[in-house]
Write a structure and sequence with these properties.
- About 40% of the residues lie in helices and about 25% in strands.
- By secondary structure, the protein is an alpha/beta fold.
- It has a single domain, classed as 3-Layer(aba) Sandwich (Rossmann fold).
- The strands form 2 sheets. A 6-stranded mixed sheet has the order 6-7-8-3-9-10, with helices on both faces. It has a 4-stranded antiparallel sheet with strand order 2-1-4-5, with helices on one face.
- The longest helix has 16 residues.
- The radius of gyration is 17 Å and the shape is globular.
Length: about 240
């Protein structure tokens, strides 16, 4: 069963059409990736799915209900959380205050405390820096914090936009390993990632986006062996 489905999705900025009539679906429990070059429309797609921007056309369904055009905070209540490109942390707040902000719609304080401990288990470095101002963290630590903050809303669906961008290779491995763990624990994930090789390795299915449209889709292993994908995104 599809947890999320977009049909004929279009996103425009004035006269510029960034996303053109795409169909994309994520089944409950899946880890699906969306790969493509810069400017392909990946971030615009995620923003539309997360309610950050209003689509210019098409329909978005979550749990079989139409959610097209619903605000982002309402979608968070329904279990959809976005980790944006650039992380979007609150630099003047501490690590723990940032994580608390992720749970701002929740009233179950005992469960929130348990989830905070879970985030600190996933990211021990955040536990070590829980009282530190978030703006003083390294890029990798800020990415951990952004993912942890999203997890504090207890999402059923996690949207991740370029989590490895600008990070050292060792930190990239750590972030992607943690994304796999989160997926294995039952959170459905749609991952936008410029590191196509890594994204295809950890996902079950993939979409390839070019010039605002989906050009290829299928099982990740099959796409990793596709000559077009290898030539365009895998360096061979």
């Amino acid at each position: 069963m599809n947890l999320l489905q977009a049909t004929g999705l279009c996103v425009s900025y004035g006269a510029i059409e960034a996303v053109r009539d795409i169909d994309i679906a994520v089944e409950r429990g899946e880890l699906v990736c969306l790969i493509g070059a810069n400017g392909a429309g990946k971030t615009s797609t995620l923003k539309a799915l997360a309610g950050m921007i209003k689509p210019s056309g098409g329909e978005i369904r979550h749990n079989s209900e139409t959610v097209t055009g619903i605000s982002s905070h309402e979608l968070v209540k329904r279990g959809i959380s976005l980790v944006p490109e650039g992380r979007g942390i609150f630099g003047r707040l501490t690590v723990e205050e940032n994580l608390d902000m992720g749970a701002y719609l929740r009233n179950d304080r005992q469960a929130v405390a348990a989830d905070l401990n879970r985030v600190f288990t996933l990211f021990p470095r955040l536990a070590e820096r829980r009282g530190q101002t978030a703006g003083t963290l390294s890029g990798g630590e800020q990415q951990m914090l952004a993912i942890g903050r999203a997890m504090m809303s207890r999402p059923a669906l996690l949207l991740l936009d370029e989590p490895s961008m600008g990070l050292a290779p060792m930190m990239v491995r750590k972030i992607l390993e943690t994304i796999q763990i989160i997926s294995e624990e039952g959170v459905t994930i749609l991952l936008v990632e410029q590191n196509a090789r890594a994204a295809l390795e950890i996902s079950s299915r993939a979409y390839v986006m070019e010039n605002g449209a989906i050009s290829l889709s299928g099982p990740s292993r099959e796409l990793a062996d596709d000559p077009r994908v290898r030539h365009a995104y895998l360096g061979g």
